[in-house]
Specification:
- The chain is 19% helix and 21% strand.
- Helix 1 links the parallel strand 1 and strand 2.
- By secondary structure, the chain is an alpha+beta fold.
Amino acid sequence: QQPTVKLLTIQSVKGLDFPVVFLVGPFRSDFGGVQQAAWPETRHTFYVALTRASERVTIGAVLGRHHPLLELLDDECYDAAGTQARRFLNTRGVTVDASGRVVSQS
């Protein structure tokens, strides 16, 4: 019943649920790399990682080294924290306000 922090791999979290999930990466080479980004198994693994949170998912990625699947996420789901996160959205034609909320899409 006490709050805890768990460090788990994506492969080990299937079927589990947490209020908050931090996903570090994914980097270009994760999930089989860019070559396997379109594979259903790759997309399913990414889906599992994103859907383990019941309240909030925070993704920490490096601009330019991020996995292409991050670009497929719905822009309105983002709260872009930091200048690089806003820059990532701006490269996709999305404008965010100073708080990181999406304001418009091209």
